[in-house]
Amino acid sequence: MRLRNLLFPYYPIRDRLLGLWARRYLSKLNIRKGSASELPPKAIDLALLHRAIITRRPKVVLEFGVGFSTIIMGQALKQVGGHLWTVDASKAWLENTRAKLTDEPVTLIHSAVQVTGMCHRYVELPDIVPDMINLDGPDKSDIPGWDGPPISADVLHYLPRLQPGCLLVIDGRFTNVEYLKSMCGSRWEWRRDDRLRRTEAVLKSVGAT
Ligand SMILES: C[S@@+](CC[C@H](N)C(=O)[O-])C[C@H]1O[C@@H](n2cnc3c(N)ncnc32)[C@H](O)[C@@H]1O
Questions:
Q1: Whose Cα sits closest to atom 8 in ligand 1?
Q2: Of the residues 50, 70, 127, 128, which has the fewest C-beta atoms closer than 10 A?
């Protein structure tokens, strides 16, 4: 029997404790909530992203999918001296987030999404070498003619330049996780948490496999 199955009865307790920790963690930060019509911030996701930056101290972070994560990661990067590049297809949500930012080191990029075969990618991608990537976009409604779960190939665009130790965080998007695993899985160490709907992967090696 897998350890995960043995531990299963305790997962609700873990999730509850994690939720308490996340709310406490975020109470010291400034999420800058928006209007009631917005999707609310997800405390655990935001706290884990913030903590990942504080502990790993990346200098260049790339994000697909603007939102509260942009604000929280921007605050963490200001603390550690890094920069965040966030790409999104929605001008309205980019402006919504821009209005909530103050002096965080964040560059917001508007880009259309292009469908290429069985996947899609943003057209405008920043020319950077990220040492952390947060994959949480695009929204399905921003992918022209797309029917089904999002399968972004944007991470693959950066693969030749990524260095070992690069952290990839994927919010939900399990079809996308499986796609990326099939394309470059053996180079990464994967940790998928179905209950938190969150996957983390750390790049182990570069070059030919
Ligand atoms: C899953 S959301 C991205 C959320 C963001 N990464 C975060 O964790 O806060 C996907 C898309 O929804 C849009 N969006 C951003 N903030 C939003 C909000 N508060 N409510 C609804 N949609 C939002 C953006 O266009 C974004 O690409």
A1: 69
A2: 127
Residue ranges making up the domain that contains 144: 57-203
Q: What is the CATH number of the domain that holds 168?
A: 3.40.50.150
From the CB of 138, is ligand 1 less than 6 Å away?
yes
Would 127 be classed as within a structural domain?
yes
145 φψ region: left (φ > 0), alpha (ψ -120 to 50), beta (else): left
Q: Whose CA is closest to atom 5 on ligand 1?
A: 67
Average pLDDT over residues 190-197: 95
- The answer to the question of residue 78 being in a domain is yes
Residue 42 is encoded by which pair of tokens? 């997800």
Give a yes or no: residue 96 inside a domain.
yes
Q: Cβ(39) to ligand 1 under 6 A?
A: yes
Q: Over the stretch 23-57, which tens digit does the pLDDT of each residue have?
A: 999 999 988 888 888 999 999 999 999 999 999 99
Ligand 1: which residue has its CA nearest to atom 12? 139
Residue 5 covered by a domain: no
